[in-house]
Design goal:
The structure is a homodimer. In chain A, α1 packs across α4. Helices cover about 40% and strands about 20% of the residues of chain A. Chain A is globular, with a radius of gyration of 19 Å. The longest helix of chain A has 23 residues, at about 65-90. The first copy, chain A, has helices spanning about 5-20, 25-35, 40-50, 65-90, 100-105, 110-120, 165-175, 210; strands at about 55, 60-65, 145, 155-160, 185-190, 195-200, 205, 215-220. With about 220 residues, the first copy, chain A, is an alpha+beta fold. In chain A, strands 3-8-4-5-6-7 form a 6-stranded antiparallel β-sheet. In chain A, strands 1-2 form a two-stranded antiparallel ribbon. At the A-B interface, α5 and α6 of A face α5 and α6 of B. One manganese (II) ion (MN) binds near residues 79, 83, 98 and 165 of chain B. Chain A binds a DNA duplex (30 and 30 nucleotides) through α3.
Chain lengths: ~220, ~220
Amino acid sequence: MSYTKAEENYLKAIYSIGVKTGDIVSTNDLAQRLETKASSITDMIKKLSAKDLISYEKYKGVSLTSTGKKIAVSIIRNHRLWEVFLVERLNFKWDEVHEIAEQLEHIKSDKLIDNLDDFLDNPKFDPHGDPIPSKDGIMPKREESAIVNELSLGDEGMIVGVKNSKKEFLQYLEEIQLNLGKKIEVLKIFSFDNSVLIKSGEREITLSDQVSKNIIVKRS
Amino acid sequence: MSYTKAEENYLKAIYSIGVKTGDIVSTNDLAQRLETKASSITDMIKKLSAKDLISYEKYKGVSLTSTGKKIAVSIIRNHRLWEVFLVERLNFKWDEVHEIAEQLEHIKSDKLIDNLDDFLDNPKFDPHGDPIPSKDGIMPKREESAIVNELSLGDEGMIVGVKNSKKEFLQYLEEIQLNLGKKIEVLKIFSFDNSVLIKSGEREITLSDQVSKNIIVKRS
DNA sequence: TTTTTATTTTAGGCAAGTCTAAATTTTATA
DNA sequence: TATAAAATTTAGACTTGCCTAAAATAAAAA
Ligand SMILES: [Mn+2]
Ligand SMILES: [Mn+2]
Ligand SMILES: [Mn+2]
Ligand SMILES: [Mn+2]
């Protein structure tokens, strides 16, 4: 069985919204994520439901069936492997790869993905620190991690991921030279606006709450 | 300006049929190539003509405008670069790459193709010996070459391409161990059925007319 | 040159995926 | 609990790319 790009994108969206909402996803949330109108969502979820890729009860939102989830996860695998390829082999920056991976993720060929995975030495995380599901759908777990936002004074850690992969945010991090692997230490916490002063290498940087709550670190 | 997959495939088909027919391409030839009905072709060529990608006169066939040709050539460039990637880096056999490249050729990103080209060390020919157009549309010329079919007794040469890239043909060549780069010598020519006996390495192989007229060699 | 055949185009229709406007159902608020 | 607001679905329409059947045109044969 093979699915259309639209179907795959719907399943992927349902998957990733579902992770946050506890599996059940509303029509409006999907419409926002997919930048379409709610009525279009209703049309499509009827089709996906007819194909048993999602469970749907009128007015009550949708959730993925196990088949639907399998497909969603495999598209996410494709997406993240391609992102690794673009950054590791084709010299792209981490803020340039998402849109291209959105296209590449829909290329149909099992062998292609298997060989790509091997070619890249079976990476476990993508350029944004997101886990790459294995062929059989298992998401590698990151070691115990925290958000910069919730660190205490004096805590140290290494950046292992971001919670926001929007171009603008990634470019901002690039600009202040905070990328995956960088070590940081919390020097000050300003409780009135939740900003933090951190040390990274020899530099001291102030991070707003907006920023610090989107950076994932491994304590060290 | 960006084009749909269908539009790109039509332009590519018009280009490659045109090379053989002297640019003008008939509705039926296109229908056959694209495996659609003639009426569908008429529909699409009206659209392509309205976009000034082809010249079209009712009942008289179509030809590419310079814009149309530019697009067709750039899709061919994508296709062939991806084929090189699949064979050279992902361990695919030359008979396995065409269908995947048919998908990959439509990925939209100039930077992707530029970087891929560099990553592959700017190859001039694809795994089937077909020339890869440069970024500005120039097709590398193969050095003086001949078809095995038209060699004379005693002639020697190296395989530099095939005129038929169909899976079955490529697999057959694989099986008799004739791939790009192999040296051959013509030992006998059987005029009654135009088959030839050739020597390749230590082995002697008989090639039917069907086969020998689809192998391109550089004399040596 | 007329007739037959092959090619191409037109007419009308269908599925996918989207939209706007209107109707329905659910949820929140008074 | 009644009413207002928000969320969702339905109705009807549009575009893209394809189809079948029929009509029009061009090419080949008689
Ligand atoms: Mn991404
Ligand atoms: Mn990512
Ligand atoms: Mn090919
Ligand atoms: Mn090729």
